[in-house]
Write a structure and sequence with these properties.
Layout lengths: L6 E9 L2 E9 L5 E9 L8 H32 L9
Antiparallel strand pairs: 1-2, 2-3
């Protein structure tokens, strides 16, 4: 049995009505991947910072997830010498 640990770190930066999130994944053979996401408050909406944080983080994690799927597809293609049709999250 083997146990591996990958660490995720999320940084949230707020400026006026914009929130930026960065999801950083470390662990795969010492490398790291970074996903990014943003959220903006519509001027007509009530400003609720927690919602902006949630949206920006969700988008950053989604970006990171897609990058990880692309890397896995590439690694499969290299290993098998056959194209990967589609990997889904």
């Amino acid at each position: 049995m083997t146990t591996k640990t990958w660490k995720a770190e999320i940084t949230i930066t707020e400026t006026d009505s914009e929130v930026r999130a960065e999801a950083r994944l470390r662990g795969k053979e010492g490398g790291q991947m970074v996903g990014q996401g943003t959220a903006r408050c519509n001027p007509a909406d009530e400003n609720v910072p927690a919602i902006g944080d949630e949206l920006a983080v969700a988008r950053a994690m989604s970006d990171l997830s897609h990058q990880l799927l692309q890397r896995a597809a590439h690694d499969i293609e290299v290993h098998t010498a056959r194209p990967v049709e589609r990997l889904q999250a």
